[in-house]
Design goal:
The chain has helices at about 35-45, 140-145, and strands at about 10-15, 20-25, 30-35, 45-55, 55-60, 65-70, 75-80, 85-90, 95-100, 115, 135. The protein is mostly beta strands.
Length: about 150
């Protein structure tokens, strides 16, 4: 997995109410901002995600974790059914990766934003002005390759 943050330091995070807690051990990709309509509706704005190998994500507490089957085939969103926090995006496409909402991390340990995907679906109420790479659609593989 291409990673902008090769550090193996442990990351932890969870939802607002504490009903879901997780730990990440292993490399993770730097942050990609997704502007697709589904992410904007789920998060209330742009979604910022890191990505890790599924085997590097440990659920420490999952009493209130639910999974919503998104409109995309084999795509699921993990959220807390108590506080509503959006936590995970899982394509379940056989790539053995899961995306973790950056805002749910307790600390980022040096992760940085590397680009924007699905800008063709961005809301008309904001502009992307940070100069990072932009892709009309996914482009995530290209961002991971060039980190």
């Amino acid at each position: 997995m291409a990673d902008g943050n090769e550090s193996e330091s442990e990351l932890s995070g969870g939802c607002l109410c504490g009903g879901v807690r997780y730990r990440i051990n292993g490399p993770r990709r730097d942050i990609v901002n997704c502007h697709c309509e589904n992410c904007r509706k789920t998060h209330g704005h742009v979604a910022a995600y890191t990505s890790v190998l599924s085997s590097d994500l440990s659920l420490l507490k999952q009493k209130s974790l639910n999974w919503f089957h998104d409109t995309s085939p084999d795509t699921y969103r993990g959220f807390c059914n108590v506080c509503g926090s959006s936590l995970f995006w899982d394509a379940r496409s056989g790539n053995n990766k899961i995306s973790v909402a950056a805002g749910t991390l307790d600390a980022s340990h040096g992760l940085k934003t590397i680009g924007h995907v699905y800008v063709s679906e961005a809301g008309d109420y904001y502009e992307i002005t940070d100069g990072l790479r932009e892709f009309d659609y996914s482009g995530q593989d290209e961002l991971e390759k060039n980190e």
